[in-house]
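User: Please look over both lines:
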Amino acid sequence: RANRANKDNRAAAPEECLFRAPMTAPTTNLTFPHRWHARILPARPLILPPRHFVYPRAAEEVERGALELMIRAEAKATELLATCALGFQNPIVPTGIWSCPNPHEICAVSGGYAYLINTAAPEQFTMLSYRPVLEIRPVPEMNLLIFVGHHSILAWGAEGLAWQSDRLSSEGVTIVSINGPTLHGRGWDMLTDKETEFALDLRTGQRLS
């Protein structure tokens, strides 16, 4: 009965609970080779450097809880400050930096809001549509960075967005295992109130079962 109640609460308002708890320490995952150096700052510098980029550009009150990064691309002599607007202040969503299949890109995640930034041309970036991203999983064997959302999975490759799966769950997606080109996971079907298993082809994002 308690499990049923938890599922009902999760389905009713998945985003409403994301502001309630303090953040955990940021993650740094450098699985993929990269051509940049980055460090996470504890706070925004009192004096802003000449090269300062805000993601997304139109964010209001972006400094409130933002992820502040100092980044230097290998080809650049000077560092830049990247201010990444906060999504949700809760430890269930990730915060940190990940290297990407493209060695010039950095994935910066701030409270579940994910930004793919070209460090060689930092005005070029993509903010993922998942708000929030719930899990990030590098798959170097397939040269993919996997993002898990509430309902589906997205894969980012060396050329950008590789694929986005169809809806896999009414609320909550769990990666169980990755075996070669196949991702196995679980979702939840609201109509049957049961967990369902699925398999995805990592080459295409198509559902195999």
